[in-house]
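## retry 2 of 3
previous attempt timed out at serialization; input unchanged, resubmitting
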Amino acid sequence: QVQLVESGGGLVQAGGSLRLSCAAPISIFGIMGWYRQAPGKQRELVAVISRGGSTTYADSVKGRFTISRDNAKNTVYLQMNSLQPEDTAVYYCNVKGTAGGYDYWGQGTQVTVSS
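## retry succeeded, writing output
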């Protein structure tokens, strides 16, 4: 079973930055990404990245967040800058294989942004 280890969450003031990381135990040849779930809200996509570096971002985080991956370390990162209170949520790492393949989730890490 693939266990994803997330880290980097915490409490920051508006305008601050955090970097999340998520490590997989084996090489991931599919998509790695981040989702988040705010209180009372559905889980939503934040950003995803292919092994080759193609990225997709939610409109709400474009220009502020940057997703990246280190394939040698089997790790995906989310650099979050200019954080806003609206970014407060539990952030979940996800890795997904090709069509019909695996789909794994991390345990979630809390990000809280105070005003």
